[in-house]
Amino acid sequence: MASTRDDHGLDPVPQGQRAAVILWTDDTAGAYAELTASGAPALAAPHRWLDRLLIAWTADPDGNPIQIVQRLEGVPGGR
């Protein structure tokens, strides 16, 4: 939970059953823009993480967080 709060600026729910859906894509910024334009809540805009991923956060209709992830090319661990 510390990473969720400290690295991504989200406020995780510490108790109860919650799920996070992780979606891998080749275009995090485009997917995030499309989802938020369609009404999905904007939890955290696309940002670099661990210097090899681009991630963003939105939520499903029940409020469960959805992480959109893209490997960055040209960095170790990327493509």
UniProtKB/TrEMBL annotation:
Query: Which InterPro entries is this protein grouped with?
Result: Glyas_Bleomycin-R_OHBP_Dase
Domain of life of the source: Bacteria
**Gene3D superfamilies linked to this entry:** 2,3-Dihydroxybiphenyl 1,2-Dioxygenase, domain 1
The protein, known as: VOC domain-containing protein
Q: Report the source organism.
A: Micromonospora inaquosa
